[in-house]
Amino acid sequence: MRMDMKTRIANLTSAAMKALWPEAEGLPAPEELRSLLAVPPDPAMGDYAFPCFRLAKSLRMAPPKIAEALCAGWTHTETASVQPVNGYMNFFLNRENFARETMAELMEKGERFGASDMGAGKTVCLDYSSINIAKRFHIGHLSTTVLGNSLKRIYDFLGYRTVGINHLGDWGTQFGKMICAYKRWGDRETVEKGGVDEMTRLYVRFGVEAKKDPTLEDEGRAWFKKIEDGDPEALEIFHWFKDVTLKDAMRVYDILDVHFDSYAGESFYNDKMQPVIDELRAKNLLTQSEGAWVVDLSEDKMPPCLILKKDGATLYATRDLAAAKYRQDTYHFDKCLYVVAYQQDLHFRQVFRVLEKMGCPWAKDCVHVAFGMVSLGGEALSTRDGVIVYLDDLLNEAIAKAAGIIEEKSPNLENKAEIARQIGVGAVVYTTLSNNRIKDIDYPCDKEEYTDEDGVPRTRYQINWEMALNFDGETGPYVQYTHARCRSVLRKAEGVSASPDWRALTNDEAQHLLRLMSRFPDVVKEAADKYEPSMITRAVTDIAQAFNKYYYEHRILDGEPEAVAAKVALTAATASLIRTGLWLIGIEAPERM
User: Fold this and answer.
1) 10 falls within a domain
2) In what helix (H) or strand (E) does residue 301 lie, and over which residues does it extend?
3) Directed axis angle between helix 416-433 and helix 142-157, to 10°?
4) Label partner for 41 (CA 20 to 30 A): which of 116, 408, 517, 546?
5) Which residues are 80's β-sheet partners?
6) How is the chain split among helix, strand and coil, in percent rounded to 5?
7) What pLDDT shows up at residue 1?
8) In terms of C-beta density within 10 A (0-12 exposed, 13-18 middle, 19 or more buried), how is residue 410 classed?
9) Dist. CA 544–CA 368, nearest whole Å
10) What are the φ and ψ backbone dihedral angles of 305, each rounded to 5 degrees?
11) Residues near 218 by Cβ (< 8 Å), separated by ≥ 6?
12) Contact 349, 302 (CB under 8 A)
């Protein structure tokens, strides 16, 4: 395995320090020194810079003097030349050697460049998407779904065993009401045909009818009690509702290429909560508060964690405690991630603290991966008020927009429908993962007033995808188009067979592109450490922009055969790395556009 340039510089600098100051204590080890190496904001200041301020206390010297001493003793010009500047040791890589070594690794590893076995023997559970049964998949579920999918791919790429869990919202009195409505006004054929939309219609009708006849509420609760008690008919209808919902959701998951290893939802933990409650009671953690049973968290400056209501009913926290213990017992996870909106921050802090109080040493490995709020045209999502865009509608609209652009710009393109799907879905996913996950997303919308079939005035929200589907600037289609451009060059270069002359890649544009690509493995690791796929989105966008600058400044297929071979190899490596980066965030890379 080759040593990456950053590690090599750290090792050489560490050796230089020990040679200059053999008696000094507190000098950074190579691993720490590597983490201290920074990339200067201006390339004219070097490729890497080491801040010597870190050594001032140990050596009792001024940082500029330390930098000057280190630079004076530096002999490794085959790796980099050095220059002291204001207390920094600046490194300027040997361009030809850097190109040769970086390209060797990129060519050897191909689409596995950046992958590692750092996670070998470790398991990461990821709880994401978590849709609700008998409700349509809407844009509010997009962030958790694509964030979780990307993190799963990132951890897979780093050698971890991953377990993707769709913690279905499949419990509560609403399911009793659903069965009541179905038994009174529905039939199997209509529900099978209408799917979730028909179930929603029945549920809405239940609400309307219950206002006229309040006894329906009792009937609904009675059906839910039957579910709880294991009544065969109630369970059969309940599980059928789940199957119909998942069948509907699978259309969206298939479009997004999102997969799960478990669909164990809330109902799965019904028989697993009592042991948790018994354990809390045995450890004297349960106290009564206004008739309910809670775990007191006042010492942690948090409200009490509600475990049982006055009537003995369990809550989300009870189920999440049971789920966490089940996941540890079943998967023996090293980390369990909950990809849930930041509004649930207190809930997870309470649950994790209760697990700590129960004596679970792995509670520290449970992490709430929070993300920002989604809104439409500045309005909070609300199914009741119609401020909603359903996810399959959104994806289909984006695909249609992409198809229109392809028809206009590339009417003779083969496989137009497939490429339109790749571009449309890519635009949606890229928009979601282009910013820090905690940032709120407000989709610009056009609003259309209309009257529904019942004569009720409503508003239809349609997302404006002109920016997201722009082929220029920081968008998914732009990055995909760069990959297609690389592949086009490679098709024209199929006869190139000379040995590469890496001196052809010592110009500023090629070096900038190579530097960005060489840092990709660090980006992947950092994205995993910080649960932040947007870092990969940013990196792959930077690589696409750097390649396009290189493409416009240098004629890739012109020149001496050896120089052309080097430029073609760089193009191939760029295409491979863009494909890898896009895959890690859940986007496909079209061969042609």
Assistant:
1) yes
2) none
3) 90
4) 116
5) 93
6) 55, 15, 30
7) 47
8) middle
9) 32
10) -90, 115
11) none
12) yes
* Bridge partner list, 91: 48, 82
Which residues touch 265 (CB under 8 Å, ≥6 apart)? 130, 133, 166, 167, 168, 169, 170, 171
Q: Which of 35, 59, 93 is the last residue of a domain?
A: 93
Neighbours of 47 (CB within 10 A): 22
Residue 534 included in any domain: yes
Report pLDDT digits (tens) over 16-36: 999 999 988 889 999 999 999
CB 385 within 8 A of CB 313: no
Tell me which DSSP letter residue 530 carries.
Answer: T
pLDDT digit string, tens, across residues 229-242: 889 999 999 999 98
- Per-residue model confidence as pLDDT tens digits over 356-391: 999 999 999 999 999 998 888 778 776 656 667 788
Instruction: Choose one of 47, 74, 93: the last residue of a domain.
Output: 93
Beta strands 305-308 and 292-295, pairing class: antiparallel
Encode pLDDT of 531-552 as tens digits.
999 999 999 999 999 999 999 9
Find tokens 């070998």 and name the residue: 120
Q: Residue 554 sits in a domain of what CATH number?
A: 1.10.730.10
pLDDT digits (tens, 9 = 90+) for 67-86: 999 999 899 999 999 999 99
If you ran DSSP here, which 8-state letter would residue 38 be given? B
Rounded CA-CA distance 587/423 in Å is 9
Do residues 112 and 577 touch, judged by C-beta distance below 8 A? no
Domain extent for 534: 473-584
CB 348 within 8 A of CB 338: yes
Which tokens sit at 559? 């020149």
| Residue 242 near residue 170, CB atoms below 8 Å | yes
Helix axis angle, 188-212 to 215-228, nearest 10°: 130
User: Which amino acid is it at 321?
Assistant: L
Q: In which residue are the tokens 């769709």 written?
A: 166
Q: Does residue 468 sit within a domain?
A: no
Distance CA 245, CA 12 (A): 59
Instruction: Give me the DSSP letters along 49-61.
Output: EEEGGGGHHHHTS
- pTM score of the predicted model: 0.92
- CATH number of the domain that 69 lies in? 3.30.1360.70
Q: Where are the alpha helices (DSSP H) in 173-315?
A: 173-185, 188-212, 215-228, 232-256, 273-282
Number of domains in the chain: 2
